[in-house]
Amino acid sequence: MQHDGQECTLHPYGAELGKTWEYGVWIPHELSPHQLQHTVDSCMELMTSHRNYEWLRNLITGDEKWVLYITYTHRRQWVSAGQTSVAMPKANLHPKKVMLSV
């Protein structure tokens, strides 16, 4: 394995130690310590202030997701001998999206 023209020696030793070479997991965003503590405090307040847990039946949760419009407009065409087919432009590099909320 080469890195900047030099032989990389970390890979064989990592394999001997039982390590694997993987990509990290993508996360949607990173919380600051203050935001993380605020989230934990809010959850703890909800759990301790309603000990009977009947309020969980009335709790509504939701989620949002960007959904791409996928419209396939490239279709086959019947073309007679000597004719050319109608040119179709490629799809946009940045497709149109819509926010789906549940």
UniProtKB/TrEMBL annotation:
Single annotated GO MF: nucleic acid binding
Listed Pfam families: Transposase_1
Record-linked InterPro entries: RNaseH_sf, Transposase-MT_Hybrid, Transposase_1
Gene3D superfamilies listed in its UniProt record: Ribonuclease H-like superfamily/Ribonuclease H
Top-level taxon of origin: Eukaryota
Chain segments annotated as coiled-coil in the UniProt record: none
Protein name: Uncharacterized protein
Organism expressing this protein natively: Adineta ricciae (Rotifer)
